[in-house]
Amino acid sequence: MKNNCRVLYVWTNGIVKSSVLGIILFFLSLPFTVDAELQGRIAYSVRGFNEQLGKFEYNLQMTTFTEDGDFKSRSLHHPGYYAVWSPQEDILYFIQRVETQSHIFSIDVNRPRQKTQLTAIGGTYRFLSISPNGKKLAFNGYTQDQQQQENQIWIMDLDTGVMEPVTAIPHFGRTFFFFGMSWGPLSKRIVFSLERPGGLEQLFLLDIETREIEVLTEFNIDYYPVWTPDGQEILFRRWDRELDTMYTINVGTRELTPLYDVDKNASMWSDWSFDSQSIIYSLWGSFYLYDRNAEKTEKLFEVDGGIFGISWWKNEVLDVEAKQKLTTTWGDVKRTLR
What we know:
The chain is mainly β. It has helices at about 20-30, 330-335, and strands at about 10-15, 30, 40-50, 55-65, 70-80, 80-85, 90-100, 100-110, 110-115, 125-130, 135-145, 150-155, 165, 180-185, 190-195, 200-205, 215, 220-225, 235-240, 245-250, 255-260, 270, 280-285, 285-290, 295-300, 305-310. About 5% of the residues lie in helices and about 50% in strands.
């Protein structure tokens, strides 16, 4: 799959061959454009019709960005969604529906037909996310022995297989939903979006060790947060009446920066490049790349079906995270809801 339409603009010093030193120095100060090549690979799901089952389902795929600018895509031969890469190996984690319950599985993409079930008990699980150190998985949901309103965030230890809830969010007798989550660097905090009364989805920060929950955004509809690998910002989508807008919020200062607008009816997923300078995102069946430095969006390629979830493999862990504590705690939120 050849990338014929992607050109990212990166300004740098031009070098012009000349026998005159003065001319060389002059041209060294002039800019010119170069192609910025994508690196690594992405995993995602594509909605398609399964003729054997006679229904639509999401099937796992991966695309590798080659050195010559091509895209090489292939099926991973499993239905599933919420795919996430292990940061350390060629391991992909995902959620798959098995009969009436969902389970978490892993595969080695070099031998994708062999899968390993990680959950001992089934349930309704969503929004899978992996810690940057590759040791734990976070997800939300409830087990087959629980009621829907017991929906919470869970963490699974990948060494032991033990999973436990790490939130005890009050449901006040009603069902509530999570709309995305993402681990922060150092594997100590998780950002998540949670529906609250009044039709608002707000962003919160969860401290894994203390279990303290702090408010990050309020009085808006904010969802699908993705933490930057450098730990300084969080990307999220904010609902509006006309067009939804992708924002970043600085974790330390809470400064908001709008990036680009998206069709509010479009199915959209996103993830960061390793250097936190590019965002890959989907609109229905197409992939796009947004370059923060150039403030440009370029279409990458299309797939045959709707895209669900994106995970961009990152082969290194950054030990950086904003350390300024927020002031509004979950206790404050509970008091306002009584």
